[in-house]
User: What shape does this take?
Amino acid sequence: MDYFVAIDYPYLDLIQLYNSYKIVVAEKLDRGEITLSEANLELAKIKYQVTSEINNRMYQQAEAARWKAELWRHAFEQIGQTKVYIH
Assistant: This one.
């Protein structure tokens, strides 16, 4: 976790969620409630869900940045169309 904090990772909540889930799965494995194969499957599922959410958030941020850039480009074009009249 320290590594993610050190690099200012934007989705610390998802890393914390994944780490918490790993502890829960490890405890179930230690108690004999699940097999090693089942534990690995559970971890693979949560890793997939976390990765999907990270990808979703990154896509949303990219879309927001794209729209902002388009807005700025349009505003700049409007400046270029402004006519100045000297009397």
In short: Residues 36-81 form the longest helix (46 residues).
